[in-house]
Inverse folding.
């Protein structure tokens, strides 16, 4: 739960509506997005470092520069460096939160 958070009402929509998120900023200035992905294969670029936490569902992820795919399920998270990218394969609907540094 985030008390006194500011939520941007307009959704960020990607990949023809298969991925969407909403931005929030906590009272302490932390920036996050709450999102949802439908099954598919996607690639995201990062400007800031982020921690992507899986809330429900599962995905396979390969961070730019790494050779292996790793699987993440509910309760797990992965780090993506700033100015990088990651590929993600979603086989079932994915609920997530991204924490930005």
């Amino acid at each position: 739960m985030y008390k006194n958070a500011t939520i941007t009402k307009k959704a960020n929509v990607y990949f023809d509506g298969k991925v969407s998120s909403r931005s929030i900023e906590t009272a302490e200035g932390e920036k996050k997005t709450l999102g949802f992905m439908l099954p598919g294969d996607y690639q995201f670029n990062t400007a800031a470092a982020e921690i992507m936490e899986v809330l429900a569902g599962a995905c396979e992820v390969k961070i730019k520069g790494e050779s292996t795919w790793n699987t993440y399920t509910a309760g797990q998270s992965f780090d993506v460096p700033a100015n990088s990218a990651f590929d993600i394969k979603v086989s079932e609907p994915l609920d997530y939160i991204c924490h930005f540094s």
The two ends are 19 Å apart (CA to CA). Residues 21 and 59 are 17 Å apart (CA to CA).
